[in-house]
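Before a colleague's protein record goes any further, I have to sign it off. I want your independent view on whether this chain really folds as the tokens say. The record follows directly below this note.
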Amino acid sequence: MSLTNDVQIVLVEDNVDDAELSMRSLKNSNFVNEIIWLKDGEEAINYLTGKGEYSERDLAIKPKLILLDLKLPKLNGMEVLEVIKNDENLDNIPVVVMTSSKEDRDLKKCYELGANSYVVKPINFNSFMEMTKEISMYWVLINQLPDE
């Protein structure tokens, strides 16, 4: 399978350990050639909408997948999800919520806001690595998105 430069995963995660594990798993998968790590909700919105320090970013290059934590500084994951799914330029990008929250109200709210998937992060290192790889493989390689 040939890779293109626009294969991109946006990881929105404030926990350094979880971010490093996710990025390591994604890089080991051999089909992801660019991962953007954003550390809070405000930075995620600025990146995705081309504002602030990302005002020069080419918005025509959209991520294939957004991996979104819920517990984020500045704007929480649900606020970020709501902005994404209410923006006609972003709303068809798959968003997978990856969180430690097992709260039913969080799960329901995320789906109400338009999340494509909700996954509770495993505590076990190998399980975490495998889950991240499987999620990205499905959403980047198997899932089909409409052309813009």
